[in-house]
Amino acid sequence: MKYIIKFYTLLTFLILFGFNSYATNKIKIGLVIPLSGENKELGESVLKSVRLAVNDINDDRILIIPKDNQNNPDKTLEVSQELYDEGVKIIIGPIFKKNSLKLTKLNEDLIFISFTNKIVSSNKNILSAGVNSISQFNAIKKFQTLNKIERSFLLAPNTGVLDEIIAGVKRSKIKLKDKYFYDPDPTLITKQIEDITRYRVRKQNLLDEIKRVEQSNEVNKENKINQLKKLDTIGGINFDSIIIADFEESLKSVATSFIYTDIPPSRVTYITLNQWFDNSLINENMIQPIYFPSVNYEKYVSYLNKYNENYNSNSNQIAFLSYDLTGLVYYLLFKNNFIVDNKIFYKKNSFKGKIGIFEIDKNIITHQLNFYVIENKKIRKIF
Predict the structure, then answer these.
(1) Which of 55, 117, 193, 255 lies at 20 to 30 Å from 66 by C-alpha?
(2) What 8-state DSSP symbol labels residue 38?
């Protein structure tokens, strides 16, 4: 009887003090986003999406502490220090890379999960969680293997994103036949594509062949000449696919320039980077089929619908990512017994989010992306 009384006394103590302490031990996650200024609407959509994720996780211990960085590097440093002083060790944000520039001044055990997809960084405590070039080239590499594509020609604009593209190519170890970095000036694109595809040489080859047949005594000469005149060029090319690492109108300009130089998508495979299911590409029938890696389309649409149902407004790609980043942080903390340390992103791990599968290893976050094709004005999943 004495032992039973002791047991119930201990159980009562745990209920009143131990369990209650566990329940009130908050999991503090900082959120550094613009909540004022010209990017206020973007920041608010991220905050709403994070709250949506917290609601789905359904753990009352999660405490999201948002701070307005006003899309300013100095303010980002200031509010991040405030969060650290409040006991926060993990911060989701900032959104834009420029706001990470001064964060090296903070304590090294403060971890940032930024929205950027930039992989070229010198700060080990800032992890880029956006859909980066490594993830995209990894998916393209898988597509190459499945379709026995062996001679891909990479084309990328010679702009500020070039370092990221080169780094993605290097780290993914994708096989390329050749690469060319073009001037993105729309008035110069076609001339550059003409040069790299030897368009004028192939055009002259056709004219020379027509002239040769005209001067010959070949049987069915007129029929051969008529057939030749239906062509635009004569001559081979040394690649079986093009990877255009560009977006929007610049992507369309490069793709249509290849068509102009007599290298349509029926002749080589057109591949590009993550376009977030750009609706304008669906109407560009001339450059179809065009293939690209991206997030899980079905889950993306499901998320957009859920966000709209809850907030009666439209979401965006950044907010979509923030939903998954909230789940990712919670998952890694759960696996680490809710102990916050900067090693949780160093250990090899994976997390299945709505975007796809996040892979974490040695402070680098990549994604296992799906692959899609736009063909006949429809989006179709490849894998």
Answers:
(1) 117
(2) G
Mean pLDDT estimate for the chain = 92
CA distance 279 to 291: 14
| Lookup: tokens for 235 | 């001559």
CA 143 to chain centre: 17
Cα distances from 43 to residues 7, 50, 115, 156, in angstroms, run 51, 11, 12, 30
Q: Are 139 and 293 in contact (CB under 8 A)?
A: yes
At residue 122, does pLDDT exceed 80?
no
What does the pLDDT look like over 344-353, one tens digit per residue? 888 899 999 9
pTM of this prediction?
A: 0.89
Are 12 and 37 in contact, with CB atoms under 8 Å apart? no
Q: Which two tokens stand for residue 322?
A: 């923030």
The CATH superfamily assigned to 24-131+298-367 is Response regulator (3.40.50.2300)
Structure tokens at 361: 């290893």
Topology of the domain covering 133-295+371-381: Rossmann fold (3.40.50)
CA angle 172–382–331, rounded 5-degree value: 60
Dihedral, 305, 307, 311, 317 alpha carbons, nearest 10? -110
